[in-house]
Specification:
The complex is a heterodimer of chains A (82) and B (635). The longest helix of chain A has 16 residues, at 2-17. Chain A has a single domain, classed as Non-ribosomal Peptide Synthetase Peptidyl Carrier Protein, Chain A (Orthogonal Bundle), CATH 1.10.1200.10. With 82 residues, chain A is mainly alpha-helical. Chain A has 4 helices and no strands. Chain B has 3 domains: 66-267, SGNH hydrolase (Rossmann fold, 3-Layer(aba) Sandwich); 274-419, 3-Layer(aba) Sandwich (Rossmann fold); 462-629, 3-Layer(aba) Sandwich (Aminopeptidase). In chain B, the strands form 3 sheets. In chain B, strands 15-16-14-13-12-11-10-17 form an 8-stranded mixed sheet, sandwiched between helices. Chain B is an alpha/beta fold and 635 residues long. In chain B, 42% of the residues lie in helices and 17% in strands. Classes of the chains: A mainly alpha (82), B alpha/beta (635).
């Protein structure tokens, strides 16, 4: 499952930032990625919602500090609603 | 079923190597266009569309835009965040043969942008303005239970200001969206009756738009209907609106973009016109050659049979709306015709098809034969076949033909075909409803032509009658339709709105002519339009000359020129000047003026050519037809 989330997120990051070389890992933050602004941030979340079939609230979105937080959030949501 | 629409299920899935193909576009400019087009015809998601859009932008910077797509500039007036939509539109446009460039109005002040003639929106010089407003950002606070009129009128006034602002500063027609109702209700079903409730207000606004928008020369984009088909709860996304002012769910962006692009394509006359159908397991269940008349499924009382009946009923409706039907089936001719002749429950009959091709040739060859017989280009064709092999073969061989993926279950055939939006239309006239008959007549004419060897006696046998008349009110709609849709037999491809057409009627600087033709096989309706501008007391310049390709090869253009000459002589005009402005679609008329005896005056750097004909002494070969010419005294 963790692998599935990591793979899925990698694909989403590659699509949204149009950089197929981008390595997606737990400690990655917005500052390290070129083009990660408020709009691409929302695109990331909306695409993740669609791909993983989950809903992320604005409050949850606001608490994300790094990619690892998003991975954990998705993991918890998919666990609860497989 | 909502995912059926959102996933664009009638399109093939994107290739697994989508990303590397995008890379190929830049690396191989020669192949770039066909790669772009083939990627755009797959069911790309929002991110893929945005990536393709960026690739297209880069590609356009390096390669000359001499491709076969129709350029179109779209300005979006929106009070939401346009970023996703603009990219998705650019990525979707090649699916419809469009090279789209789009910009959005300033997010915070769409109305100011429209009213300022020097705004970036007007400087962009758009071909159309898309009015994509969200009611949540509009000044419409309504009191529940109070009269709904105030709220409705406030929204309508707001839109009216926008439409008039666009009209004052630009010639571009507006594409105006209807408003989807919110998914949430206040008092439930009663909301529809409850004055001031959003669904009540928006429902009445939408009804009013059906009246206002066409009157203002605009085109309606029924986003309310789209949202209802998807399901309002799927369409709307409160979080997408709250987070970023996206007007609807991210999952619906590709579908929305397809709707906008098909509307633009329809405005440019690029809608499909002919539907070629397979027979076995497409129009009935089973194989007529194996199962026989009693074995095929096409009857009431059997769920599968009823599904096919429903599909046949839908096809008949399309035919009544002007879609030409044809058959391409791998069968013996007599076997294939059996159900049409002898099965009592079949709704479709042989007379509903303009061409019936049942043989053992491959389907691409049959499609080419049908195209020739109907004198209708393959880019107007849709091919429906339950067999994935045949679909793929046609896609590879004839990429200009639209080939929808068909669901396994025939109960979904109608939904698949209708969702694909091939027959999108921005207007409907009686000429449209008779179009299927015209083409059937055409096919019979072609059959007759192959029997009559000498062209003169063939033209005689057609018993043609032609009517010339200046522009006037009853023909105006059709005139505007022809002006905006004719691509092939069109010397200058100048587009005019209905309002502009009306202005020519009144102006003494213009000589206008609408032309109708009938023949032994039926009434062809209005088939040609001419606009001449008096450039001096002695000369007319042909501003517009177009003709329906249905009547090619009958010297109708000769008769039109003869009529122009007669009228010119009456007015003391001594010279007729014509221009040919080449596009990627009108090479058909490259030699039009030289064929008619005009002298070549000049070739211009933009590729256009200029021609001149002295009125006196002009000698034009006539065609055998009865001429009815209405007095043009009014002009």
């Amino acid at each position: 499952m963790k692998d599935r989330i990591e793979e899925g997120l990698t694909e989403i990051f590659h699509d949204v930032f149009e950089d197929d070389a981008l390595v997606v890992h737990r400690d990655l933050t917005a500052r390290q990625v070129q083009g990660w602004d408020s709009l691409t941030h929302i695109r990331l979340l909306l695409t993740a919602e669609r791909k993983f079939g989950v809903r992320i609230s604005a409050a949850e979105a606001g608490q994300l500090k790094k990619v690892g937080d998003l991975m954990d959030l998705l993991h918890a949501k998919i666990e609860n609603h497989p | 079923m909502s995912s059926f629409l959102q996933n664009l299920s009638w399109l093939v899935r994107p290739p697994a190597d989508f990303r590397s193909r995008c890379g190929q576009i830049a690396a191989d400019p020669a192949q770039g266009r066909s790669i772009i087009r083939s990627l755009a015809t797959t069911a790309l998601d929002t991110n893929q569309l945005l990536r393709l859009a960026k690739t297209i932008h880069k590609y356009r910077q390096t390669v000359q835009p001499d491709d076969k797509s129709t350029p179109f500039r779209l300005a979006c007036v929106t009070n939401g965040t346009p970023d996703l939509i603009l990219g998705a539109l650019t990525g979707t446009a090649p699916r419809y043969g469009l090279a789209l460039e789009c910009i959005a109005s300033n997010y915070a002040q769409p109305v100011q942008d429209i009213l300022n003639p020097d705004s970036s929106m007007h400087r962009f010089n758009p071909d159309a303005v898309l009015i994509a407003l969200d009611w949540r950002a509009m000044p419409i606070a309504a009191t529940l239970g109070a009269s709904t009129n105030d709220a409705v009128n406030r929204i309508l006034d707001y839109i009216q200001v926008i439409l008039e602002g666009v009209r004052a500063n630009s010639k571009a027609p507006c594409i105006v969206q209807t408003f989807p109702a919110p998914a949430e209700r206040i008092l439930g079903s009663y909301d529809r009756l409850l004055p001031g409730s959003p669904s009540n207000v928006l429902g009445r606004v939408n009804l009013a738009l059906c009246d206002t928008v066409p009157r203002m020369g605009g085109v309606l984009l029924d986003v309310a209907a789209l949202a209802e088909s998807v399901g309002l709860a799927n369409w709307h996304s409160a979080s997408a609106w709250n987070l970023a002012k996206f007007q609807f769910s991210e999952a619906c962006v590709p579908l929305y973009a397809d709707y906008v692009c098909r509307t633009i394509a329809a405005m440019r006359g690029k809608s499909r016109r002919c539907l070629v159908l397979d027979l076995d397991n497409t129009l009935w269940g089973g194989v007529i050659g194996d199962d026989g008349l009693a074995g095929i499924q096409i009857a009431q009382g059997d769920a599968t049979g009823e599904a096919f009946l429903d599909f046949q009923r839908y096809l008949l409706t399309l035919r009544n709306a002007g879609v030409v039907l044809a058959v391409s089936s791998k069968n013996n001719d007599q076997t294939a015709r059996l159900p049409f002749r002898q099965h009592p429950e079949m709704l479709l009959r042989e007379e509903h098809f303009a061409v019936f091709q049942a043989n053992w040739n491959d389907k691409p060859s049959n499609l080419i034969a049908i195209s020739k017989e109907l004198s209708l280009g393959l880019e107007s064709f849709v091919f429906v076949d339950d067999n994935p092999f045949e679909r793929e073969l046609v896609r590879r061989t004839l990429p200009q033909v639209a080939v929808p993926e068909m669901p396994e279950d025939p109960a979904l055939y109608t939904l698949a075909l209708s969702s694909a939006g091939y027959f999108e239309s921005t207007s409907f006239s009686t000429e449209d409803s008779n179009r299927a008959e015209f083409y059937q007549g055409n096919a019979r004419r072609a059959a007759l032509q192959s029997q009559v060897t000498d062209i003169e006696s063939y033209l005689e046998s057609l018993q043609m009658e032609i009517w010339f008349q200046p522009f006037e009110e009853t023909g105006r709609k059709r005139i505007a339709q022809l002006i905006n849709k004719s691509n092939q037999f069109n010397l200058t491809t100048r587009r005019y709105t209905e309002a502009e057409v009306a202005s020519f009627e009144a102006s003494s600087d213009f000589f206008t002519m609408q032309v109708r033709l009938s023949d032994a096989f039926g009434d062809n309706g209005m088939i040609s339009v001419v606009i001449c501008r008096a450039s001096s007391d002695l000369e007319w310049v042909i501003d517009t000359w177009l003709m329906s390709c249905r009547v090619l090869g009958r010297r109708v253009e000769n008769m039109v020129l003869k009529e122009i000459l007669v009228r010119a002589l009456e007015k003391g005009i001594q010279f007729i000047r014509g221009f040919y402005l080449p596009t990627d679609r009108n090479s058909l008329v490259e030699h039009h003026y030289s064929n008619l005896g005009f002298s070549h005056v000049a070739s211009h750097p933009d590729g256009s050519t200029e021609w001149l004909l002295p009125v006196e002494g002009a000698n034009v070969l006539a065609a055998p037809m009865v001429v009815h010419s209405e007095s043009l005294a009014a002009q």
